[in-house]
Amino acid sequence: MPHRTLAPVFAGLRAGLHALFGGLLALVVVRVLLTNGPVLALVLAGLLGAVYLSGLWLARGGRSRAAVVWLAALTVVWAALVWLVPEAAYLVFPLFFLYLHLLPGVAGPLAVIGTTALTIAAFAVHGGLTVGGVVGPVVGAGVALLIGLGYSALERRAAEREALMAELLATRDRLAAAEREQGTLAERARLARELHDTVAQGLSSIQMLLHAAERADAEGPGIAHVRLARQTAADGLAETRRFIRELAPPSLDRGLGSALERLAAGWGAREHIPVDVDVDAAVSLPMDAQTALLRIAQGALANVAQHARAHRVGIRLSGDRGTARLTITDDGEGFDPRGAEDAASRTDSFGLRAMGERVDQLDGRLDVDSIAGSGTTITVTLPGATP
Fold this sequence. Notes:
By secondary structure, this protein is α+β, with helices and mostly antiparallel strands. Among the domains are: 7-129, no CATH class; 255-387, Histidine kinase-like ATPase, C-terminal domain (Heat Shock Protein 90), CATH 3.30.565.10. The chain has helices at 7-34, 39-54, 56-60, 65-84, 92-102, 107-127, 131-215, 220-245, 256-271, 287-308, 337-346, 351-361, and strands at residues 275-279, 313-320, 323-330, 365-370, 376-383. It has a five-stranded mixed beta sheet, with helices on one face. Helix 10 links the parallel strand 1 and strand 2 (313-320). The longest helix has 85 residues, at 131-215. It is rod-shaped, with a radius of gyration of 44 Å. The chain starts with 6 loop residues before the first helix and ends with a strand.
């Protein structure tokens, strides 16, 4: 919603006050011309208009010593004109608002009372003391006081509102900056996970294969390891290009189950470890959840290859009552999950931590069950699956 100030309202009120003063002054001039009034009245009317116009910028600036001097000069010229032309008494009404706006404290109401008394006296001099000559100025003064006090209260509330709106807008800007920073940090964390699960894992596999090639004979086994390293590098390049394009993984085009089967087949052939895959084809997940589960499976298999020394691996994808469950097991050496977390916090290891962050983003749960010498089971449970 756009922010609108009350400045146009106050500007309109000021314009109305100026128009009222000009109209009443014109009425006085016409009255003097029609009744062949004294030339001095015309001179005083012109002087009153000149003084009024000369101090408009002072009135706009609010209360100041110069504004008070200008208001005093305006009052003196008006008082002299009232004694010559009784219709000039009507000019006291716009003067009321100037007193209330420019004079501090009780000086404004006191000036209103004083000029009201002067107006009544001028009416009494010209036409005698009448009920209308008394009630009219008194009622006008009362109305001016009510409107002037209301205007002052509205002006104070407007100033408070402007200060509050400025604070709210500044807070909104700070919140927007904080959200942008949080989004940047989240994107950095996502990029770190993606790089770990694609480029880093591929380079790690290439390093292991090349080390194996160095230890092997110059004939068959070494060449085989080099070929596997080349293939791993090609797969990593394809994944990196996909990652740069920010598209969904090509391996998910035919669903998560098919992607897990291809992943298991390729990894098993490369590591010479059989992988049993059991996929419930009825499980359906959003693309972001499928991507997360595929990356978790890739990370888990990479950990098995580097640390577990397993002879067999199992991958199972199942669904039940709106949840999907991915379970990855191996019969390797196992480890202490708590000790692994502590070690990861002291090094650049990112495997289990990356899995946990992916699962947390999808409001899921990650369970790691492992005992030294008894293998490892990693279970990921995600909500949002559809039968």
